[in-house]
User: Fold Lytic polysaccharide monooxygenase from Piedraia hortae CBS 480.64.
Amino acid sequence: MYAAALIIIGLSLMHTANAHFCMLTPSPIPESAQKPPLQISGSDFPCHGANIPTSGGATMEAGSTQHLSWDLEGGNSYIIHGGGSCQVSITYETEPAKLKDPKNWFVIYSIEGGCPTNSVENYLNGTYKGPQGDYTGSVLCTDPRSNGVDCINEFDFTIPKGVKSGHAILSWTWFPSLGMGRDMYQNCVNVDLVGGDGSEMGKFPTLFVANVHQIGGEQCPTTKSYDLQFPFPGAYTTTKRPPESATGATVLPFATPEGASCSMNGAPRGDLAAQAYDQPTSTASPQASPADQDQNAPTDITTLPPSLSKSAASVASKQTTQPVCLTNGKPGNCITYAISTLATTAKASPTPTKAGAPTPQHQQPQPAPTQKMCNILVCGYRSTLRMILGIRDCEWQRRACPKWL
Assistant:
């Protein structure tokens, strides 16, 4: 009976923890307007399994400006998971099998970093210092009270002239930088595109997918504590960093995903797939873990049990373990690493953008010197229920070696 009650409490907490973020404008299909992420299985991709309309929808003219915003519930929607990166895409398909194929979705706008925030907080429900004094909760970055970092960004994007006219489904997909697991979010909008000439359909990237199964996402996981840099962001891209007024703000670095299906994940369709973008296909690992930098690291990582440390050490070529306390000032928040060292030369390295620097349309990866990389076994709880039951999940992550190694 006690176990049953515990499970009920755990499920209740997990439901609360999963009430995350939802698009407000453009107005989503009601069944798609859900805040939790897509199922890891991919069973509810696309659009949370909503019934996809085959006609009607909001009229959007090619060349028009659309506003991308989120439902903040009067400041009560604050689980922003350190922001991240997102994309706006369209599809003209209505058949379930074709909708399930990411290559039938065409990306018309990418936002790298700052979607929907540049804050490194998991929850935007604290007290923050702004130009007019302290403020609390999730407020827009355009609010004069905000400090430009711990706030919510909204975006204007343009429907390209090169879209094809006709009935379509518009999608917003989001890959947050923090959180207990690696997730993919999606909301969908029923639209009618007019005035397009279809000239760019072969150049648009196709939908980037990650972290979900059935559609190839398990082959290309995103990197926790880094802002995603899309392999194929497209010509219409914004790299979002804090404004000049946010001097000294800490932001998460960028990382291009690596995995079996990452190199062509989101590549444009047609003969221009290989030539459409002059971008390197990077298999480089992130330059350094934010936990090793002087900033608040996520606190949902727990100490690796000694028994697991020994087990991990037995399978690596050269390993060591040493506890490293996180820099958030909370006692006991330490990571125990199980490390396999190896030398590598990074082709590209995600580099933090300093607050106050001009915002480029797209930030290309910069060359990095040879550095020692490690396979690091990090453990944490992937859900509130698993935390209550004391079940830890561990995974190997390839990162720059800690300074003490």
